[in-house]
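Supplementary Methods S3. Input chains for the assembly prediction are listed below.
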Amino acid sequence: RKEVEQDPGPFNVPEGATVAFNCTYSNSASQSFFWYRQDCRKEPKLLMSVYSSGNEDGRFTAQLNRASQYISLLIRDSKLSDSATYLCVVFSNTGNQFYFGTGTSLTVIP
Amino acid sequence: DGGITQSPKYLFRKEGQNVTLSCEQNLNHDAMYWYRQDPGQGLRLIYYSQIVNDFQKGDIAEGYSVSREKKESFPLTVTSAQKNPTAFYLCASSRVSSYNSPLHFGNGTRLTVT
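Predicted structure tokens for the full assembly:
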């Protein structure tokens, strides 16, 4: 079983739509959680950390459910510039490693 | 500004040659990582280091070697033993054992071996 699993998509949504991505993780001792954005042929860039109480940054909202071992990312009012691959990343202090989902592809259509 | 610098951005080599990818950071991070990404796939861990003069194999270490002689530097050598070296290589760093400390990535080296 993979440490982190994501639906690869693709998600194709119209501009202005709300879209949600989920990610599950297998290690209950996982400590920190992040969403990264990766544009084609570029490095991943931190979109936001995910806190236990949930957190929001503009149009982006991240949630963590430790009991069910999943994290989510909600994007409201999608823009064309949101088109990218979104990576779910989990840090476990068992081995001090980061574990990556394979990414969810989002295309926002005019 | 602090960050991670990878060089070169593009690298072309003939099969059978060793090649070294550079990674330097000025974020004062203890931990550094090397990942490989193939088209349409996720990141896979090659090697990581949490302290100078120490490093551990990741999931796909065969055919690669690293050194960590300085805190700022973590070069990766792709040897001729690596069966399929053409890929996008990403170096990253983070603080060690610090809650909610994310990974910071360099802008990557795209290696093509023919």
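Chain A touches chain B at residues 31-32, 34, 36, 41-46, 49, 51, 87, 89, 91, 93, 96-98, 100-103 (CB under 8 Å). Chain A has a mean pLDDT of 93.
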